[in-house]
Amino acid sequence: MPDFAYNKSIKNILPDWHDILSSSIETSDELAKYFHVDKKKIQKVAKRYPMRINPYYLSLITRVGDPMWRQAVPDQTEIENQENRSSFEADDPLAEENQSPVPNLIHRYPDRVLFMVSSQCAVYCRFCMRKRKVGAPFAVTDETVREGINYIKKTKSIREVLVSGGDPLLLEDDDLNNLLTKLREISHVEIIRIHTRVPCTLPQRITKNLAKILKRFHPLFINIHFNHPDEITCQASRACAELADAGIPLGCQTVLLKGINNNPRVMKLLMRKLLRIRVRPYYIFHADPVKGTAHFRTSINDGLKIMAALRGYVSGMCVPHYMIDLPGEGGKVPLLPECVKGMDKSTLKVENYKGEVFEYPVT
Ligand SMILES: *Cc1c(COP(=O)(O)O)cnc(C)c1O
Ligand code: SF4
């Protein structure tokens, strides 16, 4: 049995996720009980961008500065970098606010919208592209949700709703059920896709009851967000098994992050572990130029090297697309290591995954 395999005995001792969440570390005083930290510095950052590390995610940290630590613990560079890098970075580099016909809903592509229904997360990731929004208690209200649903109802071109946030799975079961019921009542909405980090950051939230609710709203897809192989614990794999057993196709959107996963060996292991818990790698995102996240950004070359290390070397089922998000309103673009080495009237020259060049007839 792999070390992170689904273990049936765990479900009997599943603690209530509310209790875990309410014991989260949110101040530097609390953090200082576990680690040697500069309390003043951390508190200054957390005042600007909230900190939340729930005890489950805290338990994944093995030492100061490890990949889980870097994702969750405020770093002084988040606020330091702002003065001198502000021309390149923005709070909202993707101009989400401009494509927002109603608050908390983004309509960028013809047939799908991104609908933010929660401003809370189980952990506040330091690299978050919606840093400007998450953790603000009043950013999502009954009123913004109602307006969003009305917009979707009257916009017949929308075929897919991406339910996002913050983390939509931090809504209570009843609230989530009501929301999904309202979306399913709209006949032109064919697909519901939920974006969540909860199976990774608070897997105890994925209860039998939640899976039972979600199952009523098929076709429903869930895209999860894992960034490091050590996040795939036996709790996380139990959570994903619960969802997969409810017939929900699972995908993963990983963010390429310096010092966390910008390494072909780490990324390859992550992709293979994901597939084993029935989560199909969907996208690797190049980190967006969001204010306060410069220390996480890597070069495009890092990303292309990782893609070259995956393609052909691991199952095609665990090779995601490597995506950049264009600034402004351009949308997403996939990047690939170049395989076409040349073409004339009769032959195409291509390079395989081992770097060997072949000729192939054009017609
Ligand atoms: C990423 C994104 C989507 C979904 O894009 P896919 O390529 O279908 O995953 C939809 N709307 C917005 C605003 C997005 O940023
Ligand atoms: S879970 Fe997602 S939305 Fe929430 S802080 Fe992390 S990256 Fe941002």
Care to describe what's here?
Helix 12 (264-276) crosses helix 13. With 363 residues, the protein is of the alpha/beta class. It has a nine-stranded mixed beta sheet with strand order 1-2-3-4-5-6-7-8-9. 38% of the residues are buried. It is built from 13 helices and twelve strands. The radius of gyration is 21 Å and the shape is globular. The protein folds into two domains: 4-65, no CATH class; 85-335, TIM Barrel, CATH 3.20.20.70. It binds pyridoxal-5'-phosphate and iron/sulfur cluster. Pyridoxal-5'-phosphate (PLP) binds next to strand 1 and strand 2.
Write the layout of secondary structure elements.
Blueprint: H1 17-22, H2 28-32, H3 39-48, H4 55-60, H5 67-72, H6 77-85, E1 105-109, E2 112-116, H7 142-154, E3 160-164, H8 173-184, E4 191-195, H9 198-201, H10 208-214, E5 220-224, H11 234-245, E6 250-256, H12 264-276, E7 279-286, H13 300-310, E8 321-326, E9 331-335, E10 340-343, E11 347-351, E12 357-361
The structure holds pyridoxal-5'-phosphate and iron/sulfur cluster.
Would you kindly provide a brief summary of this structure?
By secondary structure, the chain is of the alpha/beta class.
Which descriptors would you attach to this protein?
9-stranded mixed sheet; 3-stranded antiparallel sheet; 2 domains; binds iron/sulfur cluster; 363 residues; globular; 12 strands; single chain; binds pyridoxal-5'-phosphate; TIM Barrel; alpha/beta
